[in-house]
Amino acid sequence: MxxxxxxxxxxxxxxxxxxxxxxxxPTPHETKLLSDLDDFRNHYEYTPLVAFFxxxxxxxxxxxxxxxxxxxxxxxxLVYYYPLAGRLRELPCGKLVVDCTEEGVxxxxxxxxxxxxxxGEPLLLPFPCSGELLxxxxxxxxxxxxxxxxxxxxxxxxxxxxxxxxxxxxxxxHCVADGFGASQFMNAIADLARGEPRPxxxxxxxxxxxxxxxxxxxxxxxxxxxxxxxxxxxxxVMLSTPLDTMVTRxxxxxxxxxxxxxxxxxxxxxxxxxxFQLLAATLWRCRTAALPxxxxxxxxxxxxxxxxxxxxxxxxxGYYGNALAYSIADASAGDLCGGTLGQTVEQVCEARLQVTGxxxxxxxxxxxxxxxxxxxxxxxxxxxxxxxxxxxxDFGCGEWVVSGMAQPMLxxxxxxxxxxxxxxxxxASMLLPPSVMERFAEELAGLMMSSKHDNSSPRL
Length: 460
Hints:
single chain; alpha+beta; Chloramphenicol Acetyltransferase; 7-stranded mixed sheet; globular; disordered N terminus; Os10g0106600 protein; acyltransferase activity, transferring groups other than amino-acyl groups; hydroxycinnamoyltransferase activity; CAT-like_dom_sf; Plant_acyltransferase
């Protein structure tokens, strides 16, 4: 059901010297204020994203990867997304702004010494040498003290493989864009690389839409966020164990696995919950059971939700700033693991129902009140849905294979992939200490087995 981090061959990339790519035409020199979600302290990091494409040619007809075409398209895209070519500055009050300086983003061209297929089938991220796909391996950190001021906002690398396939990696400053925004910028580059006269979706700044109210009110959001705000120190093994001593595995959920999990739910709940809620609940329950948590310990599932397409703050099309709401489920470890999967799914669904327009506005007010402070994710499990991230990219050559996070993280990311039978599936990444990983795999396998043995009626 899962694959390990191991790849068949070790990837080594020969990189060009980093260069700054500026907007291809003059752009406004101005200062732009970030929103109160943008400059939240936990966003002081560079998010490492990567997408792979196999060659669309065959035999001797292998088209060249569009490295230089992409480089040119980046310069053109920055004409529209010109704040991304600037640098962050900090105001005396601690608020971050973008100084639109036209300095540009960092770009590197690279060549890999192997074929894309040599990285394994199915290809899933991250793998041990995926850092070779990144401009720099230290552009992000799990601390809250990452330097983001006066640095390029984006680092990009295009890596060509011997087979004609390629990978495009982007390390974007989380303060200026979330995953949706990063994907929108990458799609703009792809549009221009294909020959479109301008991006098909034009960018919208409008960060004032996600600012704290006057007067603010944190009452609707504070109870859900209180454990993360008050956690001044941590005894969570997941925060005290060095990341480089943990292992990553991917657990694949295709049509059969999802059907098996739904058989464990009451019919009314199976019809109501989404695939994301079902998977988040399943992973949260099995992960908690695998960790050495005391039964009375409070644990939380932290589930980001995009505001795009919802009525909460009326985020317009083209907005590329941080626009995530957060559904937070809470339980004791004992109750979570001692109950049924249906009960866990019910908790996740109930937490989602708490995300209303007032809750979202209250969250923005709360984030603004925490300026300079970060939240502590003690006993907190983050599950993020990246199934749409970079999945529709079309540079005019190459066939999309997979995309996702290029480095291991404590959060679980759900991405699109194909299983061993070539069927569409969802891959869930999991980073755990080795012994905990074995227990997690056993918990998940036991849950799936219970579905096979109980075909009479769903569990309540």
